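Review form for a predicted model. The reviewer records the input and the model, then writes brief findings.
Reviewer: anonymous (R2)
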Amino acid sequence: MSVPSTFSGPNGASTDRLLSDPNLATCPDYTSEAFQGLRGRIDADDDEAAITFLIESWTTNNDQEKAQWALQLEADKEVEEADAARRQQDADKLAEEARLEEDKKKPKLGDFNLTSAPSTFIEARISPFAQAKIDKMQYCLLYLFGTGGLNDAANALLSSADDASSFRLTRDDGNQLTVQSGLTSNIHKNMVEDKDLSFREFALAWHRYIKEITRANWPKLHVDVLTQFFYGLDTHPLHQQEPEHGDKILRIYADRYRKEWFSTLGTPQSFNLAIINEALLSKLTHEYLDFRPLRAHGNESLRRSAAYNIIY
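Model under review:
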């Protein structure tokens, strides 16, 4: 605490601070030879009257300084108390901020509805891996939302039993390293691409996928386009035109162009996924049917070709 060089007296006027306690002061011996000159300059009847005047003057001034000293001590006490209160307030604020920050780290139980009974249907949960993809609005395989992916998630939940004793580092699509539980980071060992799903699994998966991206508040335009895309493939005439292979060809189209749509979002090459490119679909159909005889005979050179890998 800094001490001011001036002090406000009882009348509010600013005056110099007293540097010593006037209660400890003693009146000078005005009868001594040292004050003879001072006594001579005072307009008094005699030397005795001059001495009396000097003593009374000193006493009056000392009494005034005593009063000022008392007020100065009181003012200093008020300043010190205010400063201490301010320091305590700052300390209390810091302690409260630390407490609130610590509270954020503590596990919390969510609220619940006292009047609501359990639901008659409990929806299977998607895996943390799938949820992370959805939360980050990233491309992910439909397998994660079908029977296979949901079973993987359920089995991992049973086997882990909240065991977080082992961990592993994984690298996501954005080349970021993430620490994950060793028991749950690789649960989708049998994950397959969209084109390799059965027709039924594809349908179940995309419906759940749409539900999850809607729940995660993806932009409505993107959700609508994806919904129209899947619905357009589900109701496409190719199912009837090619009863044996139409389902597979449409899944190959979906696999290829949903990936392409995600990879071009935000670029000049972006496009409306809901618009089925009939020319490309027709080309894909011919490619698939042309490779069918070779595929049936297990031609090894064909299996190594890029076209085969894309189509099959």
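Findings: The mean pLDDT is 85.
Further findings: Residues 47-105 form the longest helix (59 residues).
Recommendation: see findings above.
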